[in-house]
Design brief:
The chain has two domains: 115 residues, 2-Layer Sandwich (Pantoate--beta-alanine Ligase, Chain: A,domain 2); 164 residues, Ribonucleotide Reductase Protein R1, domain 1 (Orthogonal Bundle). It has ten helices and ten strands. A six-stranded mixed sheet has the order 9-8-7-2-1-10. The protein has a two-stranded parallel sheet with strand order 3-4. Strands 5-6 form a two-stranded parallel ribbon. Helix 1 packs antiparallel against helix 2. Bound molecules: calcium ion (2 copies). One calcium ion (CA) binds next to loops.
């Protein structure tokens, strides 16, 4: 594991150097335009946005590199001890600013869009997991059936705990049920029974990505998500699994299923994975005393190509990892 980390740091330095050259070159053009439109607030925001796009591209390249490295090692595994996951990269732009960027793993979360299959059926594995996740998080007052109704295409509630247009049209500010997969996790705020407290508790453990059936990455699943795998798994056992994972990541699902914590539970490999397909690239650009935040959801397909599926500039304070600084000198 130590070897992987050291190699990772060397690699990240090479990649950072590469990205830095690109950014500095575009920085020179920006300097030029700055002289022309010195007072332009819009222009400054636009420049910050463009730098954020550069930071996102930089992160996508890192994810491509990780895939290639995994393939060279014949170990298609993603885990928090890999170089892309460990630090926030700090890139000095020029005397005017800095770009911070980090990559977050979304693979250890439950995808809300897995609740309903592409042919419109409720996926009971995901429903059971979410129900247990709510229990693990102490969430009451919100029912998984309301989430199912939000994304299933019909207008019939799945049970007395569901909610369709009939409920939402009676709100102070009436709105319609989406009746399609979640586009953004923020749609959760609209669901019948949701409170700010529940939203904050739930958010780190769920995602809303447009590809279903990927499975939960057992190397990055949170303690509550591990607890959601079986109703006889308690918090101490889930924490024990995390501690073992920190010693040595899982490179085979059978090793995960063979953990003593699961003995006698009959846990199946369905809906579990060792790889991550969706990531969040978080960038914060501080430039000319302005800050531009961008959170990009990116998808790495089975061929290792990385594409951006969603961008959000409304989230702040999302850089959380230890900085890894690469200075110009
Ligand atoms: Ca990997
Ligand atoms: Ca519906």
């Amino acid at each position: 594991m130590l070897f992987r980390n050291q190699k990772g740091v060397a690699l990240i330095m090479v990649l950072l150097a590469m990205a830095l050259v690109v950014m500095l070159a575009s920085g020179m053009t920006r300097q030029q335009s700055l002289r022309i439109f010195k007072a332009g607030h819009y222009l400054a925001q636009q420049q910050g946005y463009n730098i954020a796009l550069g930071a996102e591209e930089f992160a996508r390249r890192i994810l491509v590199r990780d895939f290639e490295e995994d393939r060279e090692n014949s170990l298609m595994v993603d885990s928090p001890d890999e170089f892309w996951a460990m630090n926030a990269a700090i890139l000095p732009l020029d005397e005017n600013g800095v770009a911070e960027v980090q990559i977050d793993d979304l693979g250890g979360r439950i995808n809300l869009n897995d609740l309903v299959t592409t042919n419109g059926q409720v996926d009971t594995l995901t429903k059971d997991r979410l129900t247990r996740l709510f229990v693990a998080l102490g969430i009451t007052g919100l029912n998984v059936d309301a989430l199912i109704d939000w994304i299933d295409s019909d207008d019939q509630t799945v049970s007395a705990y569901g909610a369709e247009d009939g409920q939402y049209l009676m709100a102070d500010q009436p709105f319609r049920t989406a009746n399609q997969p979640f586009v953004s996790i923020t749609e959760l705020r609209l669901i019948e029974g949701m409170t700010e407290e529940i939203y904050v508790a739930l958010r780190p453990h769920v995602t809303a990505v447009p590809v279903s059936g990927i499975g939960i990455n057992v190397n990055s699943a949170t303690v509550p998500v591990l607890m959601s795998l079986h109703n006889e798994l308690n918090e101490a056992q889930a924490q024990s699994i995390v501690a073992q994972r920190e010693e040595e990541r899982f490179e085979d699902l059978q090793d995960f299923l063979a953990l003593s914590e699961f003995s006698g539970l009959g846990l199946k490999p369905a809906g579990l994975a060792l790889q991550t397909r969706f990531f969040e690239v978080v960038s914060r650009i501080t430039y000319d005393n302005r800050v531009v935040n961008m959170v990009s959801t990116v998808f790495r397909n089975p061929e290792g190509e990385v594409r951006t599926v969603h961008r959000d500039t409304g989230q702040k304070n999302r850089i959380t990892k230890e900085p890894f600084t690469f200075s110009e000198g």
